[in-house]
Write a structure and sequence with these properties.
single chain, alpha+beta, Creatine Amidinohydrolase, Chain A, domain 1, Creatine Amidinohydrolase, 2 domains, five-stranded mixed sheet, three-stranded antiparallel sheet, 17 strands, 14% strand
Length: 463
């Protein structure tokens, strides 16, 4: 964990953004895998980590905005626990590590909150996503679990987002460390990208690299030669010469900060000309986003600029036609890129998405689009120094989507369906990097950039 003073500063900043009442931030509990004592690897709630720093189950933090008091609720272990777990620090000792001097048993939390409600005090809580926390809030607040999201404190949601969106130097260092683990994972994927290798075997190597650092993957590994499926978690195939392997994977380090990279690698390390042509278009899109990302510019506008680069490249290959601006305005390009350019990243690989993406990625000035493709853009608002975002354009040939659009006669003024038909067995390409927005632009995170040009990737595959 970080120094206690950093958590104290964060909590003080949070309290200053809330008018009155109590702020309740629940940590997570263990989740059973297949029976109560066999649990999934524990993952703490990111908001609890940010403000209270303790990566242990069954804790909660409470901030009294009116008095300034801060209380940590948790349970000391007993001798039965010690037999199985070894000696553990007390809740009081854990509180001192994060700058909290008032601690109470977890069982007192419900009564504390109920008394505050009877006294007419406002209880600020965040939208819960774990059922144990939903059940706790339902019991304490008297609200059915289906209503909790509607009664969550929007004031608290906005306050948390305002703090967590801007990464400080400590967080940037942790994301850098996570990116370095991600680098090793992707290099291993490239070196194993040979005909006859099983996708599952390579995916397992990536997970093992992440685990070897005491961390875990930041999301389930996407690795498939069917890259046209955007989030393809099926690893059942054997790599074939002439195909490409799309790998979208990242690490979550031991401080729970994340990385997220994507590379597309030709099996046996040689792009054919058609693959190289599409790859270079996607690479140009990736570089364009990095070139124009800076404070004061909306990521929505960057996304649309990238879509124009994609359209221009596809026109040069005869896949698209007509005026580029008109094609992008109409959404014709979304046949090939039906997703957004990127998302926020930090303690969560899709940072703060539990707080509702419309508040994380948008604001009053920049609203989500409704048009297919751009509607999937998770991050659209104006960039600020300290944001960390992903830059992940792609180009995909999805047979089912091509067939549907062709049957419906969509965008015939911009799409050359006869040429597109010849690409239906192509697959997909995505290139993703992690960007830190700086005072005058942006920079890549991680000590080394993953191989990204066709030539660099071909070398990486073949050693």
């Amino acid at each position: 964990m970080f120094e206690a003073s950093l958590y104290q500063k964060r909590r003080t900043q949070l309290k200053s953004r809330i008018k009155n009442g109590l702020v309740l931030i629940l940590g997570n509990n263990e989740v059973a895998y297949n029976y109560p004592n066999n649990t999934y690897k524990f993952r703490q709630d990111s908001n609890f980590l940010y403000f209270f720093g303790l990566n242990l189950p069954e804790f909660a933090g409470l901030l009294d905005v009116d008095s300034g008091e801060e209380i940590l609720f948790g349970n000391d272990v007993d001798i039965d626990d010690i037999i199985w777990m070894g000696a553990q620090p007390s809740v009081k000792e854990l509180g001192e590590k994060v700058g909290i001097h008032s601690t109470r048993p977890f069982k007192e939390l419900a009564e504390y909150v109920k008394k505050a409600i009877i006294a007419g005090r406002k209880i600020h809580f965040l939208p819960p996503y774990r059922y144990r926390n939903m059940q706790f809030l339902e019991d304490v607040l008297g609200l059915h679990h289906s209503m909790l999201k509607d009664y969550a404190s929007l004031e608290l949601v906005h306050a948390v987002i305002s703090l967590r969106s801007i990464k400080d130097s400590y967080e940037i260092e942790e994301i850098r460390r996570a990116c370095n683990i991600g680098y090793e994972m992707h290099i291993a994927a490239m070196r194993n990208c040979h005909a006859g290798r099983k996708e599952q075997e390579i995916a397992g190597i990536l997970e093992g690299i992440s685990a070897s650092y005491g961390s875990m993957v930041s999301f389930p590994v996407i690795l498939s030669q069917n890259g046209q499926t955007l989030h393809n978690h099926d690893h059942s195939q054997t790599l074939q010469k002439g195909r490409m392997m799309l790998t979208d994977a990242g690490a979550e380090n031991d401080m729970n900060y994340c990385s997220d990279f994507t590379r597309t690698t030709p099996v046996d390390g040689v792009f054919d000309q058609r693959q190289k042509d599409i790859y270079n278009i996607v690479l140009a899109c990736n570089e364009k986003a990095r070139e124009i990302s800076k404070p004061g510019v909306t990521y929505l506008s960057i996304h649309l600029n990238v879509c124009k680069i994609l359209t221009e490249g596809l026109k040069a290959l005869g896949l698209m036609k007509g005026n580029t601006d008109d094609a992008v305005a109409a959404g014709a390009h979304a046949l090939f890129m039906p997703h957004g350019l990127g998302h926020m990243m930090g303690l969560d690989v899709h940072d703060m998405e539990d707080l509702d993406q419309i508040y994380v990625g948008y604001d009053e000035k920049t609203r989500p689009a409704t048009q297919f493709g751009t509607a999937s853009l998770r991050m659209g608002r104006e960039l600020q120094e300290g944001f960390v975002v992903t830059d992940e354009p792609g180009c995909y040939f999805i047979p089912e989507l091509i067939d549907r659009w062709k049957q419906q006669g969509l965008h015939k003024d911009f799409l050359n369906y006869d040429v597109i038909e010849t690409y239906k067995n192509f697959g997909g390409i995505r290139i993703e990097d992690d960007l830190l927005i700086t005072s005058d632009g942006c920079r890549l995170l991680g000590d080394k950039r993953l191989p990204v040009t066709p030539e660099e990737i071909e070398i990486a595959v073949n050693g």
